[in-house]
Amino acid sequence: MVSAPDDLVVQRPEGLYCPPGDFYIDPWRPVPRAVITHAHADHARYGHGHYLAAAPAEGVLRSRLGEITLQTLPYGEALEHHGVRVSLHPAGHVLGSAQVRLEHRGRVWVASGDYKVAPDPTCDPFEPVRCDVFITESTFGLPIYRWRPDADLFAEINAWWARNVEAGRASVIGCYSFGKAQRVLAGVDPTIGPIVVHGAVRPLNEAYRAAGVALPETRMVTEVPDRADLRRALVVCPPSAVASTWLRRFGDSSTAFASGWMQLRGARRRGGYDRGFVVSDHADWPGLLSAIGATGAQRVIVTHGSIPVMVRYLQEQGLEAEGFDTEYGDDVVEADAAPEPAA
């Protein structure tokens, strides 16, 4: 797309750039100043000079990026930089995820990052923000993507775990170490059996607990002396671990993958999993449309995902819609950006 001279956000090789403010939003190449919507690896990268993020994201950002120059801002509070008023508002995606509201000379733009509108006990709920221009993701921007209520979803996961306990085999659920793992942990019934987590999941759990998010007790595999307990365990690990030798220590097991992509026929089979559970930290099709409508924006810019479908649909609804090319990923990119400990 061709940007207008007064656009508050434009595309540059480094990422999405705010010209009057002279800063970037979730840049994918090193820049002097970056506003970060959340700590997933495709949005929060190492190497920027200065980072600004929502206060609840501090623990997970430092866990994933290490020593960075990080300034945090409570949700809803604003600061002014080169005449641009910047505030961060809950996106409901993962812990600390934020939408970036920009106000300059009477114009208001909102860059959503990734978001979901469904309730989630592990992060602040999505907050609609009125604006003139809304930059939305479209990871699951197709009508086939419609999520089930969490109560039904976790009843299914718990029943699968309980059946495996009766059969004497571990229940291994592959899910991304940041966000998805904590959502799974918060939703399952810990009375069914012990819960074991992979070494990549543990530091993120600690960051969530430090932020006040309630998670059940979990253990590393090396902290379970009785192998009989491993055969009753729910094992939460990154997808890469499911196909590794790390899994052998659990003996007989049933494997599952938790992802929005499990909505597609054949996705579970192609991944080699016994089960697939449709768990997503992104908005589904109705959620995307409700979020866009709640902003009141007449211009919508669509990023990563099903951009042509979403743009065409919004144009048919009478909105001015276009796409931004970005290097953001989707659920696949959220998998493990850093090498994982073996235990």
From TrEMBL:
For molecular function, the Gene Ontology terms on record are: exonuclease activity; ligase activity; RNA endonuclease activity
What InterPro entries does the record tag this protein with?
Answer: MBL, RibonucZ/Hydroxyglut_hydro, Xnuc_lig_assoc
**Would the keyword Disulfide bond be found if you checked this record's keyword annotation?**
no
**Its EC number(s):** 3.1.-.-
The organism's place on the tree of life at top rank: Bacteria
- Give UniProt keywords alphabetically: Exonuclease, Hydrolase, Ligase, Nuclease
NCBIfam families with a match to the protein in the record: Xnuc_lig_assoc
Q: What is this protein called?
A: Ligase-associated DNA damage response exonuclease
- Tell me what organism the protein belongs to: Ramlibacter algicola
